Amino acid sequence: MYDVVIVEDEELERKALRTILSRKVDGINIVGEARNGAEAMKLINSQSIDLILVDINIPKPNGLEIIQCIRQKNMKTKVVILTAYDYFEIMQKAIRLKADSFLLKPVRTEELLGVVNACLSELGSSRTSNAIADQIWSLLEQRAYRECLSLVRKHLESIYARKEEVPRQAILEFSDELLSLAAKRKVEMPSELLGQISNLTKERLDARSRNRIQSLFCQIVDALFQVTEEHFGRSPERMQNVLNYIERNINKEITLEDAASCASVSSCYFSRLFKKTMGETFVAYVKHRRIEHAKDLLESSDLPIMNIALDLSFSDINYFAKVFKKEVGLTPSEFRRQHRA
Questions:
Q1: Burial class (CB in 10 A: 0-12, 13-18, 19+), 127
Q2: Neighbours of 311 (CB within 10 A)
């Protein structure tokens, strides 16, 4: 449920807004109404608010001052301004205070519903990112690198799979959450990585950015776990770090030589060590992990099977289908139908 507050000094207007929202918008709870700025401030100071509809011309403090207070408190409240005047100066001030939308009075029902539903949709993306960040925090404490990387990839796939909205806002919110995690863990992100994250605000971040964004967020996970080559030389951790290397490069060509280089040992020794430790050859393990990742993508995304094969470095879709069926017992198409019925 989303908590909504209406700030409007005209009783008939306030009642109309409450009636329309209560009857027409699912998942909201109108937790308060205010006739003036003083009443609005009491509501703001006493509870969390997801969405506030505020008339600019209420008795002091006025609507703009109310919005300024919300922003100074760093509340993530969505703000919709109600005004009877289409004044450029007012709009300029509201934009500077990061108001989310404007409605001219008398408010039309269709416009009200459109604006409110858009705000709630953005709040939904933000809440999802918060929940994912909490899960990542738990995985960080468990040192569960592979599970964390898988969670991040699945969340990004779910963002790109949303048909009703562009992925840009959700990606920016997710990157903000991960940077907050880094700050909590006192992890100093590499300056080059911080630059790439900062540049996200200047990009369109549409479907064409998918693979690059996946790679960037894998780098963020690496930084959170502080996976560095200095760990590779320590025998107890050597194999785990190689497995981590495989996970973050699962969509690239991974050779035995590359993995051995990560572990700072010879290819011959690494091959024997890997089989002894994992119970299967390096090639078989990589193939198994790619198929597991393919299963995740088939379940959680609408990507064409050919794209999934290419993303996982299978140059031939027929070979991918053959390997997949041998591993899973179903063709990729059969698996997708069975798990998304």
A1: middle
A2: 19
- Per-residue pLDDT for the chain (341 aa), expressed as one digit of tens each? 789 999 999 999 999 999 999 998 888 889 999 999 999 999 998 888 999 999 988 888 988 899 989 888 878 899 999 987 766 566 667 677 778 888 888 889 999 999 998 888 878 777 777 888 888 988 888 878 888 888 898 889 888 887 666 788 889 989 998 998 888 888 888 899 999 999 998 888 888 888 889 889 988 988 888 754 333 344 446 788 888 889 888 888 889 988 888 877 777 778 888 888 888 999 999 999 999 999 989 988 888 999 999 989 888 899 999 999 999 999 999 999 888 75
Take residue 8 and report the two structure tokens written for it.
């409007």
Rounded CA-CA distance 232/264 in Å is 7
User: So what's the architecture of 286-339 in CATH?
Assistant: Orthogonal Bundle (1.10)
Domain residue spans of the chain = 2-107, 124-285, 286-339
Report the alpha-carbon distance of residue 337 to residue 136 in Å, rounded.
Answer: 30
Q: Find the length of the chain.
A: 341
Buried b (16+ CB within 10 A) or exposed e, 90-117: beebbeebebbbbbeeebeeeebeebbe
Distance CA 56, CA 76 (A): 19
Cβ(63)–Cβ(91) below 8 Å: no
Q: What is the pTM of this model?
A: 0.54
| CA–CA dist 131, 74 (Å, integer) | 19
Q: DSSP 3-state assignment of 25?
A: coil
Question: Is the separation of the CB atoms in 50 and 4 below 8 Å?
Answer: yes
SS3 20: helix
Q: Where are the alpha helices (DSSP H) in 34-108?
A: 37-46, 63-72, 88-96
The answer regarding whether domain 2-107 maps to CATH 3.40.50.2300 reads: yes
